């Protein structure tokens, strides 16, 4: 059976909004999904790092994916693809998350390497984990490389290439590590027809495109999805000078956003777009824009002004 890679374009790793009692704020989260869809992103990543996946239980994950899928369908955005975070510490639970995600309306599973036993996670063990997950998976898989949330585990291009060449269900990767050389090696070795290598941060969106990225999956798209879509349009049009100017704004704002944490991302969205709050699930705290430093606020404000003109 042939598995289709995700479409080329901008994907927003959706934040999950919470009520004061830490229950999921479905109204705000669905409003956010609607704004993303209306901004011409081609897909959403649910229950990734920005979605606070480790803070959601199985039932909440299923309910959230189903709510977003149904909401998008009701709005006529049936073509938007859903990539759902399914990583866990064992092959068994990862496969269960994937099965539940498929049942709830997911198109793809995004899988981190297991990180509880960091010292044991050499290349052989990591590759074995992904082979075993792929054998059981009910969805096509994207490998998620993000050393910042896996105790420093950094999957090599060699491992990703070997896994993709041996497993037709492994159809992509998200590289939040920021290693453009790794992205280039993967994209130039694996066929773009069957494998989608994504850059994972707005900070290097344009360089990632040059290196063969299948678009971008980036936290800053929660704030400025239209700006990301516009940079992609400029790149495809061949207007490198304008794309570079827009990349500069994205890089400044992305650096600022990286300093505020997930709750801060939600606070920025709430402040500028009028839904949700800057509340994370404990142990994450609560953030609001008034508590952020002027340099952070000004960089993000400059990008929001660009966003609202598009």
From TrEMBL:
Domain of life per record: Eukaryota
Keywords of this entry: Lyase
Annotated catalytic residues: 144, 174
GO molecular-function term, one example from the UniProt record: 4-hydroxy-tetrahydrodipicolinate synthase activity
Family, similarity comment: Belongs to the DapA family.
PANTHER family per record: 4-HYDROXY-2-OXOGLUTARATE ALDOLASE, MITOCHONDRIAL (PTHR12128:SF66), DIHYDRODIPICOLINATE SYNTHASE (PTHR12128)
Name of protein: 4-hydroxy-2-oxoglutarate aldolase, mitochondrial
């Amino acid at each position: 059976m042939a598995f289709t890679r995700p479409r080329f374009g901008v994907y927003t790793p959706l934040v999950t909004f919470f009520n004061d009692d830490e229950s999921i704020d479905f109204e705000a989260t669905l409003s956010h999904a609607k704004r993303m869809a209306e901004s011409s992103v081609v897909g959403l990543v649910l229950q990734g790092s920005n979605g606070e996946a480790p803070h959601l239980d199985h039932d909440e994950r299923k309910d959230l994916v189903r709510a977003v899928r149904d909401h998008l369908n009701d709005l006529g955005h049936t073509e938007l693809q859903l990539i759902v975070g399914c990583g866990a510490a064992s092959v068994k639970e990862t496969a269960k998350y994937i099965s539940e995600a498929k049942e709830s309306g997911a198109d793809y599973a995004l899988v981190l390497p297991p990180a509880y036993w960091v010292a044991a996670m050499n290349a052989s063990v990591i590759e074995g984990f992904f082979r075993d997950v792929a054998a059981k998976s009910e969805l096509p898989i994207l490998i998620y490389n993000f050393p910042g949330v896996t105790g420093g585990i950094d999957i090599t291009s060699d491992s990703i290439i070997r896994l993709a060449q041996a497993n037709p269900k492994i159809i992509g990767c998200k590289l939040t590590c920021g290693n453009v050389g790794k992205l280039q090696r993967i994209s130039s070795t694996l066929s773009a027809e069957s494998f989608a290598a994504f850059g994972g941060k707005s900070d290097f969106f344009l360089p990632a495109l040059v290196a063969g990225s299948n678009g971008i999956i980036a936290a800053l798209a929660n704030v400025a999805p239209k700006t990301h879509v516009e940079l992609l349009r400029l790149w495809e049009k061949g207007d490198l000078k304008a794309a570079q100017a827009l990349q500069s704004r994205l890089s400044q704002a992305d650096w600022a956003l990286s300093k505020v944490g997930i709750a801060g991302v939600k606070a920025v969205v709430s402040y500028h777009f009028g839904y949700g709050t800057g509340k994370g699930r404990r142990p994450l705290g609560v953030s609001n824009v008034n508590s952020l430093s002027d340099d952070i606020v000004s960089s993000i404000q400059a990008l929001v002004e660009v966003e609202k003109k598009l």
